[in-house]
Amino acid sequence: MRSVRALAATAALSLLAFSTIAFAGGPKQGGILRMYHRDSPGNASIHEGATYSLNVPFMPVFNNLVIYKQDEAQNRMDNILPELAESWAWAGDNKTLTFKLRQGVKWHDGKPFTSADVKCTFDMLMGKAQQKFRQNPRKTWYEQVNDISTNGDFEVSFNLKRPQPSLLALLASGYTPVYPCHVSPGDMRTHPIGTGPFKFVEFKANESIKLTRNTDYWREGRPYLDGIEFTIIPNRSTAILAFVAGKFDMTFPTEVSIPLLKDVKSQAPNAVCVVEPNNVATNIIVNSSAPPFDNIDIRRAMALALDRKAFISIMFEGQGDVGGTLLPPPNGLWGMPKEMLETIPGYGPDVNANREQAKKLMQKAGYGPDKHLAVKISTRNIPVYRDPAVILIDQLKSIYIDGELDVVETANWFPKIARKDYMLGLNLTGNAVDDPDQSFYENYSCGSERNYTNYCNKEIEKLFDGQSQETDIAKRKKLVWDIDKKLQEDVARPIIFHARTGTCWQPYVKGVTVMSNSSYNGYRYEDVWMDK
């Protein structure tokens, strides 16, 4: 079998998952999948990350208890499959979720996987273990879990304070791998050990990440590939040129802009390209705990100043979506209907009228034609952040705000905003699951590590709990829409747009499915193969 140097991945914001597809002769074993990576992750520990720059290369190292079906584009509760768990069941008035675990699974260092590993992982995530994560951005996911109990080596139960139907969806996310109990959190940052289809080989910061086939993988016959190699190329145009020239088998998932997609199709007409929404909301984060943005009038003025359709027209040639916190329908399962969205201040179609209102609010706060507000607008130093930040600066000039761009490298970006070391920021919020619990608790609950704006409304937080317990989907949707509307009216984290972006791969790469409502749930690569 000829070895094909390769790299890369399929999945992410428009996320790519992988499926076994029947081709003549069947899938072939071998080859290295080559892919470029958009930037250098801060470390290799998924549980300490808040970007799919980390998930894309390292998710193949791990397994979850459960995972979304990898060959269906839309993630839903009814397409969750067992992974390290063989089965699960609810009991105790839906307050106990028990998993029967797969036996005979080994960690990459040869040690056996047991229920103790599951308990260790989630005790750390809940902050109840002696060992601690340096960053723990998804701790709020598990606030309704009282404790994790084990029954022998192959049964584990999540014991809840109250019913939370979405817990299973959270456990299926690409952000929820099981870690080994015998490896420290510090070691997982530099040399991750998992049970997944690929083993970690090396991570050279700003250069490359390499994985190799796990020959002892519990899923017989997988993976097909011999390995995956990621070459870190922050310059988007340079990376695309390398893909067109055949140096890479796949682009970084959902990183191909609409204009660049045209270049790919003209220069590499045989390439397979797909455009999908990626469940990533571009938004403004505001440090509302410090002047001048502790003034609600200034925050509301900014929201009113936004011309959302202009962002989408400039960046995506119209291929984007206006929405609230949650991904708009039909790809999103929970987003507000258009007619409801347009009742929110700033979402109406008359941009000039909105900006006149914004100017009055700014004047009320002491600013105007003769006194502008000068601010630094911080953003991450990659194109999908920088480009909308430049447009935002231009739009804010219309309401007496003069912005100066402050770019921050990826390794420093999330720690910087988590400690509220910024005035105003242009941020991308990737939702790891298309479910309100993930988005509401993680981004808007008081004290959450990913609540970068310090927004805290205890009354709305009670509403979070109300929708979370509702088992009737239609009733829950109405509760969710009301909450989302309140968040936008409170200017908690003004949503600018939901992006649609492209992913391309060479025609010999097989077994790829593009996900349409989650950027974090399909990076195993175990079903991908190359007919070359």
UniProtKB/TrEMBL annotation:
Localisation per UniProt entry: Periplasm
UniProt GO cellular component terms: ATP-binding cassette (ABC) transporter complex; outer membrane-bounded periplasmic space
Keyword line: Signal
SUPFAM superfamilies: Periplasmic binding protein-like II
Family: Belongs to the bacterial solute-binding protein 5 family.
GO molecular function term, any single one: peptide transmembrane transporter activity
Limits of the Solute-binding protein family domain: 80-448
InterPro entries noted in UniProt: Peptide/Ni-bd (IPR030678), SBP_5 (IPR039424), SBP_5_dom (IPR000914)
Extent of the signal sequence: 1-24
Protein's recorded name: Peptide/nickel transport system substrate-binding protein
Source organism of this protein record: Bradyrhizobium huanghuaihaiense
Any GO BP annotation: peptide transport
Primary location class: periplasm
